[in-house]
Amino acid sequence: MTTTGDSGPHRAARTEPDQGNEWSRLGPAVARTQDDVRSSESPAGRSSSAPAGAESSSTKRAPVAGSTSSPWADGNGSTKSSTMTSKGRSSGPWQVLSRLIVGLAVPLGLLALSVRLVASPLFLWIEYHRPGFPSDEYGFDAGERMSLGSQGVDYILNWAPPSFLGDVRTANGVPWFTSDEVSHMTDVKGVLQVGLGLALVTVLLAALFWLLRHRKDATGLIRAAVWGAWGTLLLLAVLVVLAVLGWSTFFAEFHSLFFADGTWTFSASDTLIRLYPTQFWIDAAASVAALTVLGCLVVIVSGYRSLRRRRKAVTPQR
User: How confident is the model at residue 316 (pLDDT cuts 50, 70, 90)?
Assistant: First the structure.
């Protein structure tokens, strides 16, 4: 019932039913329905509404630490803010460099280690005493070969001057090694020590990068090492095929990469040829290849196992 003296707006306000009271008089169930309608009409309600049976945003599983489902997850599985800071952007080159160094350290380190194991008195002893190794047609026995051969191996590994090898003489005072042989061994010494030094520096840098970045990029570094091992196996396969197809050509081309023509060829009666005949270099190359392959397999197997453990560690338990 309205009062006839009231103005239009006041009259309309009084006659409009109070929706809140109307809904509440219909009972608590309908009142709840009214709340649902209001929440669905609001922007927040529309964004939070979901089909029946779907999980609400408050009941969804919290992201597992280390999950890689986030597009901002790094190589280690940890999530980061979608806003990239200048510090995050500057870490890109270091990530590429660290992975590159680790990948290069695998072939260089394994080859250097294999060469160092072969360039040893132990390998000489095995060669000179194994059945089928060619004897010296000029009279060296295994003991004399072992003594003089060890002198040559020691020279290419130490820092001694050329006189270390040039002063090795017979009982009559005649040098066992000619000046050309000493000069070639000096060239070998330089190439070998530069190669071993480069491999050592690369391995040390890889170890340093691992210490500095393994918490941020362990997965990436492990993958780089594994790919470095696979690349080494591929390179070895190519070299083995070339060596099998023509050892003489392979041996000559290999020497021409590091030594000037005419400085590494000798007669059959020279001491270097008598100590290190063709069969010696075939066995040495095969031993270096076998040791390197073994090292690559160790890196690959251990790398894949480590990656598998890391994946299991970040996989959410269902």
Answer: low
Contact between 153 and 164 (Cβ < 8 Å): no
| Residue 257 to residue 195: CA distance in whole angstroms | 13
Residues 314, 66: Cα–Cα separation, whole Å: 5
- Residue 64: HSE in the Cβ half-sphere, 13 Å Cα cutoff: 13
Look at phi and psi of residue 150 and say left if phi exceeds 0, alpha if psi is from -120 to 50, else beta.
Answer: alpha
Rounded-to-integer distance, Cα 148 and Cα 254, Å = 25
Sequence-distant (≥ 6) Cβ neighbours of residue 33 within 8 angstroms: none
Cβ(192)–Cβ(284) below 8 Å:
no
| Nearest partner of 130 among 265, 267, 245, 282, judged by Cα | 282
Burial of 274 (0-12, 13-18, 19+ CB in 10 A): buried
- The percentage of residues in the chain with a pLDDT greater than 70, rounded to a whole number, is 70
Q: Which of 259, 288, 257, 281 is nearest to 149 (CA)?
A: 281
Q: Which long-range contacts (CB under 8 A, 24 or more apart) does 281-289 make?
A: 281/251, 282/247, 283/127, 284/118, 284/123, 285/243, 287/114, 287/117, 287/118, 287/123, 288/111, 288/114, 288/115, 288/118, 289/114, 289/236, 289/239, 289/240
